[in-house]
Task: inverse folding
């Protein structure tokens, strides 16, 4: 049992294993093929042939049919049942007088047969033809594998894309469900910058829910991709663009209550804007109801419930503010303190209910006279009222005080217990100052009180003015 390698040259065109029990046959074939630059291996029996084919598969096997130890068919079947050798083409060699079942040979996997004695051209033509088929098969196989790899890659890509699309559509659905279930307006906007300076000039609407769109009486689609300040918001009226720019450029969280006229109704909104990429996200909450209640409560806390003018607490607060304002601008600040003459006897005689009515009436007369928006009327306590007159010199305060005094007299509110008149009269003390560090708001009040005292001492129903500092 031997097999030989007859050639190891590099330029060989194919390797062929020849299996034949007759050394003479082996020799003839080997020398023929070697001459045609085939690499040739030889085996004299089936077992050796199978081992050789497994250890180093040739491109083709020439296989004798009649051999003493293992029949050619059996060798063929064994080679065809082994994955390592099943693809090697096998050409049977048979003698002319051999009993040879060609159909069976093809059935068990042979590709051709050659009959002895050999016709050289025929043998070479058949071998060459089989090797060409084999090469073609290999190329096809390679192409098929490449195609399969491409196909698999494509399928993976499609699968991955479908998964991504599913995730995207789920997250999109999730975002939309959040947007649409929110009771607040929600939007995301991106900065639109000047090409040359890079400064933010507007914001483009990227995402918005219907609640936000409702503020503009629009549909969501009508806002998407639009420049909100160019198309929808007149910043000259609202002045909010600069705050949004700060959100983006300085990463400041903006929380602000803003008042807007919406559907011809004044509404309050609380907005929260947070930087998001080169833009911001915003939530908008309608706080009109809460804000109105707040304003109402604030007003209730500042108003005297009986007379409906401001209360003492508001007076103290306002006086300090006006003091600082006039201090800054160096304008005169006047204060009138005013007392209803003989009010205690009035109360005692007419009763408290009538006393309250009288206070209300006097307050409403004063209220019609104190008209400038900066002027401020308050009930100072009991039957005393105070009027703050910013940017008003003493002469101006005198005019106001005298008008009040006159109008109350003209109202002719009967007062049988007054020692100076048949009707209600007032005593008024005025103090005026240009605020400075030498004085305090309390000095202004004390000085007005002194003037009021003088007015009372001098017979009531009169106005006395004191000036705290010369100007
Ligand atoms: Mg034989």
Result:
């Amino acid at each position: 049992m031997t097999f030989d390698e007859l050639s190891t040259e590099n330029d060989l065109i194919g390797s062929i294993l020849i299996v034949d029990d007759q050394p003479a046959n082996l020799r003839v074939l080997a020398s023929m093929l070697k001459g045609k630059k085939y690499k040739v291996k030889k085996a004299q029996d089936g077992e050796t042939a199978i081992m050789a084919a497994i250890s180093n598969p040739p491109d083709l096997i020439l296989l004798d049919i009649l051999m003493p130890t293992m029949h050619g068919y059996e060798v063929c079947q064994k080679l065809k049942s082994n994955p390592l050798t099943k693809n090697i083409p096998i050409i049977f060699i048979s003698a002319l007088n051999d009993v040879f079942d060609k159909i069976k040979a093809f059935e068990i996997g042979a590709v051709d047969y050659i009959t002895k004695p050999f016709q050289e051209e025929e043998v070479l033509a058949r071998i060459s033809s089989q090797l060409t088929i084999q090469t073609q098969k290999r190329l096809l196989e390679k192409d098929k594998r490449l195609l399969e790899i491409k196909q698999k890659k494509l399928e993976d890509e499609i699968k991955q894309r479908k998964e991504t699309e599913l995730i995207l559509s789920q997250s999109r659905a999730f975002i939309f469900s959040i947007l649409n279930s929110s009771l607040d307006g929600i939007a995301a906007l991106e900065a639109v910058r000047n090409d040359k300076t890079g400064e933010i000039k507007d914001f483009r609407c990227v995402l918005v829910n219907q609640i936000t769109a409702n503020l503009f009486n629009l549909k969501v689609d009508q806002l998407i991709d639009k420049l909100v300040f160019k198309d929808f918001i007149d910043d000259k009226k609202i002045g909010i663009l600069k705050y949004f720019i700060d959100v983006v450029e300085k990463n400041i969280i903006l929380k602000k209550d803003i008042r807007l006229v919406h559907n011809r109704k004044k509404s309050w909104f609380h907005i929260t804007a947070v930087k998001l990429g080169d833009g911001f996200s915003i939530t908008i909450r309608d706080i009109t109801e809460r804000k109105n209640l707040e304003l109402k409560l604030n007003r209730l806390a500042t108003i005297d419930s009986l007379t409906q003018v401001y209360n003492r607490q508001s007076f103290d607060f306002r006086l300090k503010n006006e003091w600082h304002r006039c201090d800054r601008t160096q304008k005169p600040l006047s204060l009138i303190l005013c007392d209803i003459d003989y009010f205690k006897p009035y109360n005692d005689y007419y009763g408290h209910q009538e006393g309250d009515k009288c206070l209300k009436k006097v307050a409403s007369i004063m209220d019609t006279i104190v008209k400038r928006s900066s002027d401020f009327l308050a009930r100072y306590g009991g039957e005393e009222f105070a009027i703050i007159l910013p940017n008003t010199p003493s002469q101006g305060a005198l005019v106001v005080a005298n008008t009040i005094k006159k109008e109350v007299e003209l109202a002719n509110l009967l007062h049988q217990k007054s020692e100076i008149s048949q009707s209600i009269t007032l005593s008024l003390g005025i103090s005026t100052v240009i605020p400075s560090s030498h004085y305090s708001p309390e000095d202004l009040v004390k000085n007005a009180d002194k003037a009021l005292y003088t007015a009372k001492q001098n017979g009531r129903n009169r106005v006395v003015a004191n000036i705290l500092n010369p100007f």
In short: The first helix runs from residue 23 to 35. The chain has a mean pLDDT of 91. The radius of gyration is 56 Å. The domain at 303-467 is CATH 3.30.70.270 (Alpha-Beta Plaits).
